[in-house]
From TrEMBL:
<protein>
    <submittedName>
        <fullName>Radical SAM protein</fullName>
    </submittedName>
</protein>
<dbReference type="InterPro" id="IPR040086">
    <property type="entry name" value="MJ0683-like"/>
</dbReference>
<dbReference type="InterPro" id="IPR007197">
    <property type="entry name" value="rSAM"/>
</dbReference>
<dbReference type="GO" id="GO:0051536">
    <property type="term" value="F:iron-sulfur cluster binding"/>
</dbReference>
<dbReference type="GO" id="GO:0003824">
    <property type="term" value="F:catalytic activity"/>
</dbReference>
<dbReference type="Pfam" id="PF04055">
    <property type="entry name" value="Radical_SAM"/>
</dbReference>
<dbReference type="InterPro" id="IPR058240">
    <property type="entry name" value="rSAM_sf"/>
</dbReference>
<dbReference type="InterPro" id="IPR006638">
    <property type="entry name" value="Elp3/MiaA/NifB-like_rSAM"/>
</dbReference>
Length: 357
């Protein structure tokens, strides 16, 4: 790793242009030199929390490559800073960059619990698992302050509605009491992301996420309390973590995970440029090798949008990855199964209390 030219604590190392905006903000070399001579910082690198007020909170997921029908996001943007994150592109719709803005301008939906409650009380709504979150991590650092995710879990419990969670943050254990109550009714499934077993890799790939030991502890504590856990071994990046598949699967299984899922990294939209800039600055010795192996999985390009292929990849390297995944499932998850969540209770709780008739 080369740390001499990196922005500390961030994944992206630049603000890429927003394709929807006419004007581009550029930090010029003469400005940087002026700051250096004056002993000033050209960028304070601070995180900014911005309140927004959407009219709805539950989103229908129409992509055939995503294993969910509905999702909701309590926050937009994510301070975790995972450099490969597919959600970066969505920040451009809000008028920001998919680069550093995605990590430093966090949009906060304070009305999310109220909007969720209105959705679950709707006569037209039929219970179907809603996933927190389909886009950005619902337990990112902002949750320490705003506690919106916890309030949403309280709504799900009140209306006995199934909910899935995807996170790579140990903060989820703060709400263990709520998760246990939801699990008493078969209403909760948790997906914990574990991308590597090496802390050095984690620190540069996912700079503000929980450490690997903390994530494994999270899987273990949830599992010991009977809460079903699926491990997200994603994305698999050739040349960075692809050699860890068997060790990752074995380790999460030993800590109680009932299943695991994976994707092969794809770098669509602005993410291709962000990742390319990042790897040349942090891993210059293997940058070309990694980029070329990613391209080999996606028909010679970093930018792959083909449904059914984009998350699975193709070619020799992708085939090797799929072979290791099959071996891992056979060796470490043979007699394990992630349960389906309960959708039968919600109809009797639409009014917020158990119907007598």
């Amino acid at each position: 790793m080369n740390s001499d030219y990196t922005i500390k604590g961030r994944g992206a190392q630049e603000n890429t242009p927003n394709k929807f905006l006419q004007h581009i903000y550029e930090t010029r070399d003469d400005f940087l030199e002026f700051c250096r001579l004056e002993g000033e910082s050209a960028d304070n690198n601070r995180t900014q929390y911005i309140p927004i007020f959407p009219k709805t909170i539950v989103n229908e997921v129409k992509s055939p490559d995503v294993g969910m029908m509905y999702s909701m996001n309590t926050y937009q943007g994510c301070e975790h800073g995972c450099v490969y994150c597919y959600a970066r592109n969505t920040h451009e719709y809000w008028g920001y960059s998919a680069g550093l803005d995605f990590e430093r301008k966090i949009l906060v939906k304070r009305d999310a619990p109220k909007l969720l409650e209105a959705k679950l009380k709707s006569k037209a709504w039929k219970a179907c698992t809603i996933v927190l979150s389909g886009n950005t991590d619902c337990y990112q650092p902002a949750e320490h302050k705003y506690k919106i995710t916890r309030e949403c879990l309280e709504v799900f419990l009140k209306y006995r509605h199934p909910v899935g969670i995807i996170t790579k943050n140990g903060l989820i254990l703060r709400d263990l009491h709520l998760l246990k109550e939801l699990n008493n009714y078969g209403l909760i499934g948790v997906n914990v992301s574990v991308t590597s077993l090496k802390e050095e890799t984690r620190r540069i790939l996912e700079p503000r996420t929980a450490s690997i030991p903390k994530r494994l502890k999270t899987i273990k504590v949830l599992s010991e309390n009977g809460i079903p856990v699926n491990a997200m071994l994603a994305p698999i990046i050739p040349g960075i973590n692809s050699h860890e598949i068997l060790d990752l699967a074995k380790t999460v299984s030993e800590n109680g995970a009932l299943s695991f899922a994976f994707t092969i990294v794809r770098l669509n939209g602005a993410i291709g440029g962000i990742f390319t800039d990042w790897i040349h600055k942090t891993m210059p010795d293997r940058a070309y090798k990694v980029l070329n192996q990613i391209k080999e999985c996606h028909g010679g390009t970093l930018n792959d949008s083909r449904f059914g292929i984009r998350s699975k990849g193709e070619g020799k390297i992708a085939t090797q990855i799929h072979d290791m995944v099959r071996l891992a499932r056979r060796n470490y998850f043979k007699d394990k199964k992630f349960p389906a969540l309960n959708t039968e209770l919600h109809g009797r709780y639409k009014t917020g209390q158990l119907s007598l008739f």
